[in-house]
Amino acid sequence: MPRAIPPIAFFACALALASPPRVDAQARDRGTIVLVVAQAPTAPIPTMMEGAASATDNADVADLLFLRLAELGPELTTSGDQGFVPVLARSWTRRDSLTLVFELDPRARWHDGAPVTARDVVFTFDRARNPAVAPKLAGLLRHVSSVTAEDDRHVVIRFDRWYAEQLYDAVFHVQPLPSHLLAGAAGSAALPADFVARPVGDGPYRWVRSEPGSFVELGADSGFFLGRPANRRVFIRVAGDPDARLNMLLSGEVDALRTVPAPLSDVQRLESALDLRLLTLPSPVMGYLLFNQRDRADRSKPHPILSDPAVRRALVLALDRWAVVRATFGPYAEVPYGPVSQALWIRRGSPRASGPDTAAARRLLLSRGWADHDGDGVLDRDGRPLALTLSYPLTSEPRKQMALLIQEQLRRVGIRIELVRLEGPVWSERRSRGDFDIDFSSLTQDPTPSGLTQGWSCRGGTNVAGYCDPVVDSLMERAIAARTGAEAERLWREVLRRIEEDAPAAFIYAPSYVFAVSRRLAHVTLRPESAWLRLWEWKVR
Amino acid sequence: MSRWLARRLGQAAATLALVTAILFFLMRLAPGDPLGRLQSDRPLTPEQVAVLRARYGLDQPLSRQFGAFAAGLLRGDLGTSIEYGRPVTRLIAERLPATLLLGGTVLLVNFTVGLWLGALQAVRRGSRLDRWLSGAALAGYATPSFWLGLVLAWLVGVRWRLLPAAGMQNPLLGPEAGLWARGADLLAHLALPALTLVVVSIAGTMRYQRRAMLEVLRLPYVWTARAKGLDEATVLRRHAWRNALFPVLTLFGLWLPILATGSVFVEAVFAWPGLGSLAAAAVGARDYPLLMGTAILVSALVILGALVTDVAYVLLDPRVRWA
Asked: What parts of chain A have a pLDDT lower than 70?
């Protein structure tokens, strides 16, 4: 046996010597803000944020580094030419119904000192419109027919057709890149490795360093042409586990985090912390039970149960969606009217989603021949029980919790639901194939309602349930082509009403984001389309 | 010896090649699409999916995909991660130090404190200390690591604020901070995840060592040493303890892969930027290149662990011959 000092004593001494300087250091540094996010910003670079890199945390960091030509106004309206706030473009004019001309702000500079020019805008649009480089962006910009530079400061964007969201498409999807640093990369999906490792932008913050998997440091650009940032530097720490993020905030190691308020116990922990305040913000997230209208075994045939609109309506009526949402999210979510998240402007003025009416649900089902003929508690017709599967990914705790409540609510009207929890990739694969009865889906919506065409039009690229209503298609086309914002709003509202009537899905939840922010921060402004967009205005008390 | 070693290395390389091929096809046969997860949040149209599928080579026949992977592997190129869009070798290289630090610390504490406590238990067998240590070690062994991690993070990190609740370093220290300050910061961040893993794993080492020591203490040469008049400490340290180390070597071989993979749960709970959480994310996303990279690394370490154990036995125990 060794007679030396027991090793345990050595490790105890080592631990004692390791002083934890984190809280003191943070308190001393009054110009520093520390955020924590779920996913590491791997490539916060415009035109590279496709696929996995399209994660919200990546896009949020890109918004701190790179400017748009203009931002959405406080109303988040994407239709028409009103309400946008100039950023990189000082102004814009309409030459005709198909042509927009932008004048760049001459004060705008890249972080290496070079001026931002019209060539940068053209270069980036060329990349963005190339499906081989950025397939999703290219799809979003499909109506942009050309982008040209008239001189160093003027950019002309032409469209192949008139529609109300031309300005939105021109300013929102693409943040210009510095063409002088990326020569030769126009047609390549990859950008030079040194630029990816250390992006050069024109936003209020410049890239300082990154510790893989740990944090990213951004430094304020003191020469930022829209005003000197109110803080000196920002650290974006990464913690994939929600408990780890919560602990970092509650221990004072970080100043702010964003969360979806489920489980509720997490929000309650934050509510009880005296040095934090909670802010809510409309989130672009929306969850719904998607009813498959095609036979899962043979897509050419209608679904034996769910192709009947009366059954789908009965399912919606049988659900107490408000009770489900309150139990899961507390006051931090609402039941959407139609497939719209809280962040979509067309939800303004929509009626409140209906409550449950189990008697009406039973009547509807009975009218279609569904009754409990054999007395086993499950409705049946021609010997076939009204039994359906409900699939959802096992990684989603809120959906798991809600699925149990939904199963119980539908059981009370005689509908048997079998819950199918699937690993994420398996769930996605089956969903894409249409191999489900009811799918508990969740999606993150872009600010524009035109995205609804993907999931809810007959030929929509992501319409996996086979929903098709030509009237809805026609209404959406007219809404997209509307001449005025008011006309678009009216038509979109009609789209929602019609979709609610068709009941292709039961729209369950549209949560708010809950932000927990340290009380040492002042002038905190959050934006629904990009939470940290106004971070440069935050002050440390 | 060199012939024996060359033969063992050859066997190890063949095993690794076989395991790699099996892993490649098993992963592709498992249900789930690597591009599926990309659509779970912001759905993509079939055309956009087709472009991404071609970009990652997923539109090729399986045999061609394997050929490309094997050719890349021979060049030391494990491909590009679908999830991160970066070379897998670079991702692994970035995360490996954190995992080695955590795993190495746990291994070090396990095989110093664990051996010492196990030997102490054997020497004082049947005493109150022996019973107490056995009970404590088994309680630790029975505790789920993620639960213990959550409790420690909350109690020590949040409630008492004695140590950092998560992360590997305080970003505010910056690169200009002195070596001492950075070392102390690293040690402070390391303390809770390492403690969690040590508590749940040290029991194995202690039990192995205790039993081995008890067996050795009964052997005649230990009595002979005592009869020669050697003091008890020398008998225990030189004659008993050294010989009781052999069985623990097997345990060391088994532990070696854990050095690289760490603990997925503990890394998650403490936001430790290691390989375990990277591998777990790769599984969840069906990120084939990254999955293959981490799986090959773990397989190599399992094979290496067995090889190291064999070599150590032969070197340390004269009764075992090169054969």
From this structure: 1-29, 51-55, 261
Q: How many CB pairs under 8 A join A and B?
A: 239
Which of A9, A516, A448 has its CA nearest to residue A266? A516
Kindly determine whether residue B44 and residue A34, on different chains, have CB atoms separated by under 8 Å: no
Best of B27, B33, B42 to disrupt the A interface (most A CBs within 10 Å) is B42
Average pLDDT over residues B61-86: 90
Residues of B in contact with A7 (CB under 8 A): 109, 112-113, 116
Global pTM reads 0.88
Residue A186 included in any domain: no
A26, A83: one domain: no
- Of A219, A195, A193, A224, the closest CA to residue A206 belongs to A219
The reply to whether A157 and A231 lie within a common domain is no
Q: Assess whether A471 and A330 both reside in one domain.
A: yes
Q: What is the CATH number of the domain that holds A86?
A: 3.90.76.10
User: How far apart, in whole angstroms, are the C-alpha atoms of residue A65 and residue A204?
Assistant: 7
Q: Kindly report, residue by residue over A143-199, the tens digit of the pLDDT.
A: 999 999 999 999 999 999 999 899 999 999 999 999 999 987 878 878 888 998 899
Question: Which B positions 233-272 lie with beta carbon below 8 A of chain A?
Answer: 233, 236-237, 240-241, 268-271
CATH number for the domain that contains residue A326: 3.10.105.10
Mean pLDDT for chain A? 90
Task: Based on the fold, state whether residues A298 and A407 are members of the same structural domain.
Answer: yes
What's the gap in Å between the CA of B10 and the closest CA on chain A? 36
CATH number at A238 reads 3.40.190.10
Question: What DSSP assignment string belongs to A464-477?
Answer: TT----HHHHHHHH
Of the candidates A211, A235, A241, which has its C-beta nearest B271's C-beta? A241
| pLDDT number for residue A243 | 92
Token look-up 């050294």 returns B242
CA distance B65 to B34: 14
- A435 lies in some domain: yes
Residue numbers of B between 57 and 86 with CB closer than 8 Å to A: 82-86
How far is the alpha carbon of A461 from chain B, nearest alpha carbon, in Å? 4
- For residue A346, is it within any domain? yes
Domain identity same for A297 and A417: yes
Q: Are A408 and A437 in contact (CB under 8 A)?
A: no
What pLDDT does B2 receive?
81
- The range of the structural domain enclosing residue A222 comes to 3-64+203-255+520-540
> What three-state secondary structure class fits A298?
coil
Tell whether A270 is covered by a domain.
no
Range B258-283 average pLDDT: 85
Neighbours of B201 (CB within 10 A): 21
Q: 3-state class of B291 per DSSP?
A: helix
Query: Is B51 near chain A, with CB under 8 Å?
Result: yes
Q: Do B47 and A214 touch (CB under 8 A)?
A: no
Question: Residue B322: pLDDT above 70?
Answer: no
> What's the pLDDT score for residue B321?
64
Statement to judge: residues A385 and A437 lie in one domain: yes
Same-domain check for residues A43 and A151: no
> Cβ distance A212 to A226 under 8 Å?
no
pLDDT of A23: 45
> For residue B246, what pLDDT is reported?
80
Residues whose CB falls within 8 Å of the CB of residue A454, separated by 6 or more in sequence, listed in order: A460, A461, A462, A463, B43, B45
Q: Is residue B197 classed as helix, strand or coil in its secondary structure?
A: helix
**Contact yes or no for B158 and A251 at CB 8 A:** yes
Summarize pLDDT for A43-96 with one digit per residue, the tens.
899 988 876 656 677 889 999 999 999 999 988 889 888 899 999 999 999 999
pLDDT for position A308: 97
**What ipTM was estimated for this complex?**
0.86
How many independent structural domains does chain A possess?
Answer: 3
Tell me: do A367 and A498 sit in the same domain.
yes
Q: Are A424 and B32 within 8 A, CB to CB?
A: yes
